[in-house]
Structures are given as C-alpha cells and as structure tokens.
Amino acid sequence: MSNPSAAPSPRTRVRRVAELANYDAAVLHAIIDAAYLCHIAFHDERGTHCIPTACWRIGAHLYIHGSNGSRLLKRLSENDACVSITHLDGLVLARSAFNHTMNYRSAMIYGRFEAVADKHAAMEALMEHLAPGRQAEVRGGSDKEYAATTVLRIALDEAAAKVRSGPPLDDAEDMAQPVWAGVLPLAQSRGRAVPDPAGGGAAMPAFVRQWGGADSA
Amino acid sequence: MSNPSAAPSPRTRVRRVAELANYDAAVLHAIIDAAYLCHIAFHDERGTHCIPTACWRIGAHLYIHGSNGSRLLKRLSENDACVSITHLDGLVLARSAFNHTMNYRSAMIYGRFEAVADKHAAMEALMEHLAPGRQAEVRGGSDKEYAATTVLRIALDEAAAKVRSGPPLDDAEDMAQPVWAGVLPLAQSRGRAVPDPAGGGAAMPAFVRQWGGADSA
Lengths: 217, 217
Description:
The structure is a homodimer.
Chain A: E1 21-22, H1 25-33, E2 37-44, E3 47-54, E4 56-58, E5 61-67, H2 71-76, E6 81-93, E7 101-111, E8 114-115, H3 119-130, H4 143-147, E9 149-155, E10 158-164, E11 182-190, E12 194-195, H5 206-209
Antiparallel strand pairs in A: 1-10, 2-3, 2-6, 4-5, 5-9, 6-7, 6-11, 7-10, 8-9
C-alpha cells in the first residue's frame, strides 16, 4: 500500500474510470473510519450473498463480529470475501443526461477473514468507535456473552479506494445548454439523541449531548 | 411477496434475528426508493466481488446501468447475483455492551439480471429519481451515448427486507445500570446546492433551491 498509484493485486486494480483510483493507506483508512457498516460478499453452495454488518478498524485490519451461529461468519472463515464501504457525498448534475454522476468515497477489500483471539480488546475498540468513553460505563460483556460471540478480521493488504469529488465534467459542446449544473450534496447526519423511554436516571454524557449538533442536555 | 410473513425462497428467509424480517412488497419498495445506490455481489473466475452502483426502481424491478465495457454488467448477465441496500438509522446504546445494536432498514434481492430493451424509458426514470423534472432541461442522450450504455434489471420476486427501529432492549437485570441508554439517530441529509464554478447562467430550478432544506436561491 506504499505506492498510491499502484494496485496491490490484479483484482484490486480499478478498471472503470481508473483515474479515480487511490491505493494510499491513509485514504483507505479514512474511508473505513468514517463508516459504521460495510457490505460483505461471499459465495457458498446456495449462491453469492451480500450482507451488511457493523465494522471497525484496528491498525491494518478491518473487524466484524456476530453470533457464533451466524452463517456469514462461518462461511467467511472458509472462503475469500470482498468487503465494500461506500459513502455517498452528492448527486452531480451535468448539462447532458449522460454526464450525470455521483460524488462518493468507496473502499474495497479482498481476502480471507481470520478469527480474532483477543475478543475483549477488539470489542472494546468497537465500543470506542461507536461511543467514545462508553466502555467504562456499561455493564461489560460476561464470559457467556463473549463465548457466544465470534470476532473476525481481514487484512487491508489487498484493497483499493475510489473517490470522486467536485463539479460535473461536461462535454465542451454542452457548456451552453441552458440548464443549472452543479452538485447536490449528501451526507450522513446526526439527529438529536433519543433517551430510552424505559427510563433509568443516568445523565447524558457529553458525547450524547453533542451528538445532534446543538447541545441537547 | 403477498404474504408479509413468508419468505419467497429458502435463501431469502432471514435467519439472524428473524423477528425483524419483512417480506411485504411495500416495505421493500420504500427501502429501494429511498436509496441512490446499492451493493451488488457476484462471483467470477477471480473470486467474489462487491460493487456499489446507482440503482432505481420501476414497478417490480430494480435497475442499474453502466458502460458496455463494465465487467460488472457483463458478469451479471451470466450469473446470479445478490443486491443489498442498507439505510443506517441510528446507533442503539444499551445498558450492557452486548446489547448494543443499530437501527436500520435493509433490503436484499437474489436473482439474475436481464438486459433492458427500452433504455430510454429506463434512463429517464433514473433522471426522475435523481432530479424530478430535469429530463426536460438537459441535453438528452445521443444515439451514440445510448449505444455505449447497458441497462440491466432484476426482478424483485426473490427479496427480503429487514428493519430494526426503536430503543435498546436490555436484559432485565441490567435495567438499573447507571448509564445513559437510548438511540443516537443517523440519517442521510442534504447540503446546500453547489453551482458548477464553470458557470452557465441558468437559474436554479425549484428542486435545487429546496435541496438543502432552506431555500438557497
């Protein structure tokens, strides 16, 4: 991953609109760290499947978890998989129908998942990703809960990012078309925190008060 | 798809947390219509792949498109695929680490894509999905552009939705844990439209002015 212009493998070489490809680890990590979930493709005797699941990064690996009984997790330790993360940043409205496109940041990772031995450290990193500082406040996982949980990780060695940003690119002969052109931005936004109606008197911690933008204490 | 409680096939029967499954067409359609992109899993001689692409719905089919040269589109007419769409609606913070989860609406479709003969109608439906009314304003697709474009569709016959919403569900013995519990909402939001700096004098149409919430004319 040290050369941002070279794909780490033939199957991570971006083919469509290849000038948008990026093989730099920092770009890849930023795309992963901005995500709460990924889509994982795998193949078994029933066909090819595409399953969304929570993900997080520790160093040069992407982590997932689930119940020991999960078909996804069983299959992933037996076969190669492909993981995709996509952030949609906007609709790009060009002067011609054909040149309409979207702005996005996407990551794709190929490889084989492996079981993680230190499940405690991995799950605490997930909690830190979701809600910084919360691990110290919740009732931590019991031995029984940890025993029922599988944690897997995949190396980020065979991965690529693809990013489009900025305004539309129209053909020269379309520039005088009398139509508005530009970008309609899209982003993941946070709404005001909703306390569990089942109650419990604990005060909102700072990161919950700040979640929705304005301080909602 | 007429019975909301019955899966249309063995591979669309939701297995994990099966009480969140929904096989009703209206629920499925709403999840698809709220999306601008999907992830598609397919398998070829290089392995299993997971590729994001724009999607839209016409009736009981999901549509995608791309260049005739696209590997994705070539492979999809040769093999079964799985399409996933996932909207992340919030992080669900429980009183125990183990019961943390996410709120989401997800759809999964299995089947074989087929080529669409009436590409004009299909692409105009995509434009209507992205920017209502815009088709009449842009420079429409030329014969050459349409000839270079492949449009595929997949029937929504073999599909399932899975939806989680609402507050955390904690174990009874954790309800007194002194920690805030509730939902941190997430949503896709729209930012203020960004005109192409390359100019062109056309006024912002109403849907562009309204895109960012406040009227930004």
